[in-house]
Design brief:
Elements: H1 2-25, H2 31-40, H3 43-56
Keywords: Membrane, Transmembrane, Transmembrane helix
Transmembrane segments: 6-26
């Protein structure tokens, strides 16, 4: 079961990478879109925002 899970994660990552590359090639997304999605993955900003909300209330 471990190997199947690793295979699933690996293949998912590869396919998402290929899909993103295709979107870049046909100019459906640009650098600003990529920066936006990467900022969504920034865990530190979630933590800072959460602590901000707690302190303000």
């Amino acid at each position: 079961i471990e190997n199947q899970f690793i295979l699933l994660l690996t293949s998912t990552g590869i396919l998402l990478g290929l899909y993103s590359f295709e979107l870049l090639l046909i100019k459906e997304i640009n650098k600003n879109d990529i920066k936006f999605f990467l900022s969504l993955l920034n865990i530190k900003s979630y933590k800072d925002s959460f602590l901000d909300e707690i302190r303000n209330d």
